[in-house]
TrEMBL record:
<dbReference type="InterPro" id="IPR001845">
    <property type="entry name" value="HTH_ArsR_DNA-bd_dom"/>
</dbReference>
<dbReference type="InterPro" id="IPR036390">
    <property type="entry name" value="WH_DNA-bd_sf"/>
</dbReference>
<keyword id="KW-0805">Transcription regulation</keyword>
<protein>
    <submittedName>
        <fullName>ArsR/SmtB family transcription factor</fullName>
    </submittedName>
</protein>
<keyword id="KW-0804">Transcription</keyword>
<keyword id="KW-0238">DNA-binding</keyword>
<feature type="domain" description="HTH arsR-type">
    <location>
        <begin position="23"/>
        <end position="117"/>
    </location>
</feature>
<dbReference type="InterPro" id="IPR036388">
    <property type="entry name" value="WH-like_DNA-bd_sf"/>
</dbReference>
<dbReference type="InterPro" id="IPR051081">
    <property type="entry name" value="HTH_MetalResp_TranReg"/>
</dbReference>
<dbReference type="Pfam" id="PF01022">
    <property type="entry name" value="HTH_5"/>
</dbReference>
<dbReference type="InterPro" id="IPR011991">
    <property type="entry name" value="ArsR-like_HTH"/>
</dbReference>
Length: 117
């Protein structure tokens, strides 16, 4: 088995800091998967709408996003599967909200609140 060639380090402390910041490669892959899911404009629209509504049902979300109930339901299934939204049933109505603070923060960076919000 061939050995990997020796690599030249200019600043080992920076390499150490970069590796510490990178963390586990599996975590990077999980974030890459999350970003691929939210890269779709329709799904990102739903996430932003949910963020500002705090929680919202499918039919109201469809109106806000300008999508059909069916398209919203399909997108929400994918967003739930990737852990981006959670749901809570109240009687016959299911409400959706963002799953964690990280997504709230990301949306604030993508579309910051104005002073009036």
């Amino acid at each position: 088995m061939p050995t990997e060639p020796q690599r030249r380090l200019i600043d080992p402390e920076r390499v150490t800091a970069a590796l510490a910041g990178l963390g586990e490669r599996e975590t990077v892959q999980q974030w890459a998967d999350r970003f691929s899911v939210i890269a779709d404009p329709s799904r990102l629209t739903l996430l932003v709408c949910i963020h500002y509504a705090r929680e919202i049902c499918v039919s109201d979300l469809a109106v806000a996003a300008g999508m059909s109930d069916t398209a919203v339901s399909q997108a929400l299934r994918l967003l739930r599967a990737h852990g981006l939204v959670t749901s809570e049933r109240r009687g016959r109505v299911v409400y959706y909200k963002l799953a964690d603070e990280t997504m709230h923060e990301l949306i604030h960076h993508v579309r910051p609140h104005s002073a009036a919000e």
